[in-house]
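Regression test case RT-17, inverse folding.

Input:
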């Protein structure tokens, strides 16, 4: 009987815990996307090239992101992801177009 009374006080519903985790993940993703958009805005307003002639990792865009990632752990882990980083040239062009409108 004690277990039935005490267990709900000390544990959470699984769906509730997953919902909180999903909410946190969405907030982090939104924050990182905002930083990416601010980098795009900065490079565009300064009329600087996003990509260079060399490797993509040496581009102004990626170097600016790496600089910001030094102060932001979440952005650093976002950049180190294998996919869904929203940093590809096609995404950059789409975001520039969206900001222009």
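Golden output:
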């Amino acid at each position: 009987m004690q277990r039935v009374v005490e267990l709900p006080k000390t544990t959470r519903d699984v769906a509730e815990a997953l919902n909180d985790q999903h909410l946190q993940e969405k907030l982090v993703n939104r924050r990182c996307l905002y930083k990416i958009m601010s980098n795009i805005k900065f490079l565009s307003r300064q009329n600087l090239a996003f990509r260079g002639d060399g490797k993509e990792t040496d581009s102004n865009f990626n170097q600016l992101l790496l600089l910001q990632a030094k102060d932001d752990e979440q952005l650093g882990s976002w950049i180190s992801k294998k996919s869904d980083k929203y940093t590809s040239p096609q995404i950059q062009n789409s975001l520039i177009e969206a900001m222009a409108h």
